[in-house]
Design goal:
Helix content: 25-40%
Largest sheet: 9 strands, mixed
Strand content: 15-25%
Structural class: alpha/beta
Number of strands: 15
Number of domains: 2
Radius of gyration: 23 Å
Distance between the termini: 50 Å
CATH architecture of the largest domain: Alpha-Beta Barrel
Low-confidence stretches: none
């Protein structure tokens, strides 16, 4: 791995903090933001909409976050929020809580100083696609040195649209610490504009775009400070490991944790008194407002033996919204 931020992300230990949904200076056709992120002023910690500072801290504790990745928007309001949450996180978790910011603007010295003083460790710049290859001698070169002078680790994070050797030059010159190349992806938020630009999904892939990935790797992949982050790795490793971290923290004694990091339990609308009458140990079930949640294997057994009429096995994410993945009826 090439950065502490990437290492933590690969472990599933990085909380994603989205601070603002407006970009005043950019309108990238490949922007992946969906309806609940693009052109909104809401803040999200992972999938959780933030209403108060405690929501951010609770979400970080929920997943035993090792660090935080901050992204979203360009206006001054985004900077103010970023500094606020950086200070909040450092106060709660200390200096070992690694933070990095992904941004599409340069910002200038004063903003770099403010971010550094607030506790930011690493800043990843995403220059406009139309300027790739002509960044030397511009504010994009200047800001790399300014960021480092203000105590930040400067780097690039770019979508894998095409190969660009200028990023390698910045690495060799010592201006940027590393370059993270994300596999080019389609999402619900950008697929119409991507198709209009002539891009299509790769065969048998959920999000990866069918473009010259091999060409990018041929040109940039051998550099020791370039990391190519694939869509498969994001889903199979980063996301799954983050779910597993959450699941370990929030699971009840009777919840099963799957290899995908989801929680599995049983659900029935039977009278809770029935469980008491059958002598079911309290650690194997919990009574909700209008139903009972119980160890799935026990519910299955009770229905097979005629102790209960019906129910279902529920699989859901351990995230704050508790999205249900699958329901399997039992009768």
């Amino acid at each position: 791995m090439i950065s502490k931020g990437c290492e933590q992300c690969a472990e599933g230990g990085k909380m994603v903090l989205f601070v603002y949904g407006y970009c005043d200076q950019r309108d990238c056709f490949y922007c992946p933001l969906g309806e609940n992120r693009k052109n909104v002023t809401d803040v999200y910690a992972n999938e959780r909409r933030v209403e108060r500072d405690e929501d951010v801290l609770e979400e970080a504790h929920r997943m035993d976050a090792l660090g935080t990745s901050i992204t979203g928007g360009e206006p001054q309001e985004a900077l103010e929020r970023t500094c606020h949450y950086l200070e909040l996180l450092k106060d709660e978790f200390g200096e070992d809580h690694h933070t990095h910011l992904y941004t599409g603007i340069t910002g200038g010295r004063e903003n770099m100083r403010r971010l550094s003083e607030a506790g930011l460790d690493e800043i990843r710049f995403h220059p406009p696609l139309e300027q790739w290859g002509e960044l030397h001698g511009t504010e994009w070169e200047d800001i790399l040195y300014i960021a480092r002078e203000e105590g930040l680790t400067p780097a690039f994070e770019i979508p894998g649209i095409r190969a660009e050797t200028e990023f390698l030059e910045f690495l060799d010159e010592g201006a940027a610490e590393f370059c993270n190349v994300n596999e080019f992806e389609m999402s619900d938020g950008n697929y119409r504009r991507m198709q209009k630009e002539g891009y299509e999904l790769k065969e048998n892939h959920m999000s990866a775009v069918d473009n010259d990935r091999d060409g990018i790797l041929d040109v940039m992949g051998d550099h020791e400070r370039v990391y190519f982050c694939t869509s498969v790795f994001k889903d199979a490793a980063q996301h799954r490991r983050r779910l597993k971290r959450m699941a370990r923290n929030v699971r009840r004694e009777f919840d099963d944790v799957t290899d995908d990091g989801t929680l599995v339990y049983g659900k029935t609308y039977a009278d809770p008194e029935r469980f008491e009458a059958l002598g079911v140990p309290e650690e194997f079930y919990t009574v909700k407002t209008n139903h009972v949640e119980v160890a799935w294997w026990l519910l299955e057994e009770m229905i097979e033996e005629g102790d209960l009429e019906d129910g279902e096995i529920v699989e859901q994410y351990p995230s704050y919204d508790g999205q249900v993945v699958e329901r399997t009826p039992l009768a």
